[in-house]
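User: Can you predict the 3D structure for this chain?
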Amino acid sequence: MSKILVAGANAPIAGEEVRISVRCRESSPVEYAVAVLPLPSGSDPWLPLQDPPPTYAEGARTGVDFKIKLARLPASVQTVALALYASGGSATLMELRDVSVEIGDHAVQLENVDLAVATVIFAELYRRGDTWKVRAKKEGVFDGIEELGRRLGVPVNDRRKGERPPPTPISSPFGRSRNQADWSGSGSMIADRYLITNAHVVNNASEIYVSSFIGKSKAEAIIVDETNDLALLRIAESFGRSELSFRTTGVSLGETAITLGYPLHGLLGKGPQVTNGSVSNLLGPGDDARVMQITCPIQPGSSGGPVFDSSGLLFGVVTATLNNAQNVNFAIRTALVMPLMEAADIDIVRRDRGPAVEVSDIVKANSKFVWRVECFR
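Assistant: Here is the predicted structure, written as structure tokens:
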């Protein structure tokens, strides 16, 4: 019987090869496999759903039951990341049930919450002198195997990503303006001429425009933190100082969360939309402490918008929603925004949590500082 390895635990590997096996209880519409990523990049990564086994791997082409020949890896390779991934554009692994992962004589248990992403590193093999060891991990990535490769410094090309047709957009009876953006998101004006949003909102945009009740202007991304999915934009014109305040105290499970943003722009109207809910989990997938889970309804275009507490203080930035699940949404903690502010030498207002106020008062006080972010290819 395999020995269970909890996340962070390690064990030696006997011999010069190790067998990797992944099984699920039943068939699933999600195409999945185990990606093998040697680090540093001394050997080619292996994406089994599109590539045959490299010289260091032997076994099934499906990539769910195979062997890694450790002696065949170049001496420069010190670590091999093993990641369960969904290919072909699948947004999550959550449709998999009762996932069983075995690495040699050891096993890693992946719970349903660990699969709320498109890619999760479940283990890594690493050298210690002449010995190889295995370490259990649970590190999830929302944006898929290519994003994981970028973070690890390994070029990964999921050629199957474009095989599935893009989702059909919601049609609008009002048609599309000639000048309508290719895509849009939301953001918070945290200081005069500066706005915070998501990195994934502005990535690949050749032009960015921002607008709110108080005006419209061109903007540019001056700092993009893809690791934490944050971007700092500089607005071309001045619209006065911001009155948004950042919360300095920690977040509590179950407390109120309020979002403002511009979801489904062009369909729901030009003004910002408000939703409210609660903090339903203090951690993200794989116990990721950078994000928290909120129940505020989120739609396309909400990304990058602010999350306020019951006293109207900013304590999160909307980042993602889980498809095929009801109100499972995620926000980045504002503590991760602070380093961007310091790097740009921006002063912001910080306050401790105060007494609760009416949602309508929070909306009235902050609406003009919540901006639509329009991006053009």
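Residues 164-178 have pLDDT under 50 and may be disordered. Residues 145-152 form the longest helix (8 residues).
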